[in-house]
Amino acid sequence: MNIHSYGSGSPKSFLAYPRGDFDLESGSAKKARKPKSSSFQPIKMLKSLGTRIQYYYKLHPLFVFLISLLFGLTVVIILSVYESRFRAMSNYRKLSGGYGDYPFTKLQNLVMVAGHSVYTSSSCGKVDKEDSWFLESYQRHPGQAATFLAHIKEGVEIAAKDDGALLLFSGGETRKDAGPRSEAQSYWAVAESEEWFGKKEAVRWKALTEEHARDSFENLLFSVCRFRELTGSYPQNITVVSYDFKEERFAYLHRSAIRFPESRFFYSGTPSSLTSKEAAMKGEALVRAQFQDDPYGCAGSLRRKKLGRDPFHRTIPYPNGCPEIEGLFKYCAAVPYPGSLPWAS
C-alpha cells in the first residue's frame, strides 16, 4: 500500500462548513454577535440615579427631602465617630512612643490630696492663718486653714512611706476672686514652704499637680488620668486624702462610679475644725445624696456647681492623656459605666 504524504505533518483537515454558526435552511453562515460591553460606567449610573431622584422629588418632594436629610446626618455621625476614634488612637500612639517618654514609669501607686481652697497670701509665713486663704462663707471658721495644712502633711507622709507612690495635689482654678491660681498649685507651694515636713528628699521629686478638677469626683477621675500621663500606666493602688466625713463619698460613691477595686482603694481622713463640724456634716449629707442620684456629676445641681467653679473657662485636656478610658469621661447616667476599664476585671 502506498502511503501518500502531504507535507511533514499530519493530514490537513477538511472544513465542510465555514467557521461560525451555520443556518441549515438558508445554507448561509450567521454573523457572530458582538458581546455587549460589560464595562462599568459610573457616569451613566449617576445620571440615571439623578434622573430617578428628580422624578421622585416631583412626586413626593417632602419625602425625598427628609430622606436626603437623614442620609446626610447619618454620614456626618459616622464621620464624626471615626474621626474621634482616629484622634484617640493618634494620641495613644503619641503617648506610647517609648518607655523613656514617661518621667515616672517606676511609680505604681497614686496618693491624691483633694484641694479645698486657694492660697492667696503673698507670703508663705502664715499658711495656717485663715486670712492667707480664699474662703467661701461656709469655710470661714477658726482653725479651717489648719485643716488644709493637715491634708498636705498627711499626703506627704503617706507618699514618703511608699517608694512606689506618686503624690498629686488636685484642684483647679475654682475661685474667681482668688485669681487664676489653682488649688493644686496652692497646696504644692505650701508644702514647699514647709520644707515638705522633713520629707523633702523622699517626696518633692515625685509630688506634682492636677489642676483642672472642679469637684470631688473630678479630683479622683482626673488624678487617675494624670497618673497615666506621668507614668504610662494606671495606678495599682489609690489613696485619697481629704476630710474624714467625706470618706463614704470618695471610698464608696466615687470609687464605685469608676469601678476601681475596693481592695486596692484606701482613704485617709483628717478631722474638720471643731466649729465647722456640725455644718460640714449637714452639707456633706446633701452632697452625698446628690452624687447618689447623679454619680458622675453631669446633670442638675452638681453640673451647675461644677460650671460655676470654672470662672476662667479653662479647657480640660483629659482624656487626651488616658485614651483607654475616654468613654468614662463622656458617660452620664445613674448606673455605673458599663464599658471596659483597665483596672476592672
Overview of the structural elements:
The protein has 345 residues and is an alpha/beta fold. It is built from ten helices and nine strands. The strands form three sheets. It has a five-stranded parallel beta sheet with strand order 7-6-3-8-9, with helices on both faces. The chain has a two-stranded antiparallel ribbon with strand order 1-2. Strand 1 (22-23) and strand 2 (28-29) form a beta hairpin. Helix 3 crosses helix 4. The longest helix is centred in the N-terminal third of the chain and has 35 residues, at 61-95. It is elongated, with a radius of gyration of 36 Å. It starts with 21 loop residues before the first strand and ends in a 15-residue tail after the last helix.
Brief description of this entry?
It contains 10 helices and 9 strands. It is an alpha/beta fold and 345 residues long.
Strand-residue proportion: 5-15%
Unreliable stretches (pLDDT < 50, length at least 5) are 1-14, 95-100
Question: How are the strands ordered across the major sheet?
Answer: 7-6-3-8-9
Largest sheet: 5 strands, parallel
Class by SSE composition: alpha/beta
Q: How would you spell out the order of helices and strands? A: EEHHEEEHEHHEHEHEHHH
Average per-residue pLDDT, rounded, comes to: 86
Give the total of beta strands.
9
| Computed Rg | 36 Å
